[in-house]
Amino acid sequence: MRKIYAIGEILYDIIFQNNQPKASKPGGAMLNTAISLGRLQLPVNLIGEYSDDPVGEIIETFLKKNNVQTNHIYKYQIGQTAIALAFLDKNNNASYTFYKSYPPERLNIRIPEFQEDDIVIFGSFFALNSDVREKLLGLLQKAREQGAIILYDPNFRSPHQDELPTLKPVILQNMSLADIVRGSDEDFMNIFEADNAEQAYEAVRQYCPTLIYTASNHFVAIQSPTVTAKFEVPEISTISTIGAGDNFNAGIIYGLYNKNVKKADLDNLTIDDWKNIQERAVSFAANVCQSYDNYVSEEFANKVRKKV
User: Fold this and answer.
1) With contact defined as beta carbons under 8 Å apart, do 150 and 143 qualify?
2) Where are the beta strands (DSSP E) in the chain?
3) What mean pLDDT value characterizes the chain?
4) Total domains, the chain
């Protein structure tokens, strides 16, 4: 049976609104994606690290409760589990302050036995971090060798803009390892100064054949060697946008897995195929935006599963 692997940073989020704490929960982009897929009963494995401390134990209990496999988590003894403070603005978008205390050795895990057509997702600043770069490349190269589908979400935000000259070669290498790049309009403006989906694809296609371009609550664009399409997104009211992109990614993976799309099939997907996949992804993101949770609700997940 094919499996799903999410590789990334694991955090504990404390969310503030109007300078008051509103919620706290396990977080990190790839954890958010993994929890939603676990709630949908998909075979998802999270690859990352946290400390053998009380916060780490909270996260581990939460992962197991939500059907996320933890066989490839590095539980370190020196240091503490990372904490993120998320401050929501008037539009319910978040800015972050991080508190991290990692050990000298990072991501000390056994590389999984990837199989053909497994799905691997990675991204965010974790994918640019020199401290874990060698380990991450080992994982991705092994996954490619075994024929897995690899999805990369750069999630490159403006606070790191000053570092772009150093980080851009790493971002481009990540794209070259991927079968699909999924990013926001903000990502591609920051990385390539691309102000539309066509410009973004012109830059990305040199490294990766398929681009999924999201423009907030306006539209989703799909660009591949065989498909060029743009889909409008329905307007919704939001409580928090934390996890919106992560759960859009979960919806893309759910669509690929549920339709049994294999690596060899990616270039053959039609506009109708992509329409159905992105509609599911948009619904995942919309569900998350209407709560303080970073993942789809269990009620939503149950409804999705019943429709299959």
Assistant:
1) yes
2) 4-7, 11-17, 20-27, 44-51, 68-69, 73-76, 80-88, 94-101, 119-123, 149-153, 180-184, 210-215, 219-223, 228-232
3) 94
4) 1
Claim: this prediction has a pTM higher than 0.85: yes
Q: What is the pLDDT of residue 236?
A: 82
Q: Does residue 182 register a pLDDT over 70?
A: yes
CA distances from 299 to 13, 96, 236, 287, 295 (A): 22, 29, 19, 10, 11
For residue 112, what is the domain's CATH number? 3.40.1190.20
Write out the DSSP string of 36-83: HHHHTT--EEEEEEEESSHHHHHHHHHHHHTTEE-TTEEEESSSEEEE
Residue written as token pair 């503030």: 16
- 3-state class (DSSP) for residue 133: helix
Q: How far apart are CA 25 and CA 232, in angstroms?
A: 31
Confidence category of residue 90, pLDDT binned at 50, 70, 90: confident
Query: Between 239 and 255, where is the model more confident?
Result: 255
Helix-helix angle 54-65:29-39, to 10 degrees: 30
Question: Which amino acid, one-letter code, is at 198?
Answer: E
Structure tokens at 289: 């935006």
Tokens representing residue 294 in the block: 């970073």
Q: Are 10 and 46 in contact (CB under 8 A)?
A: yes
Full domain range(s) for residue 144? 4-307
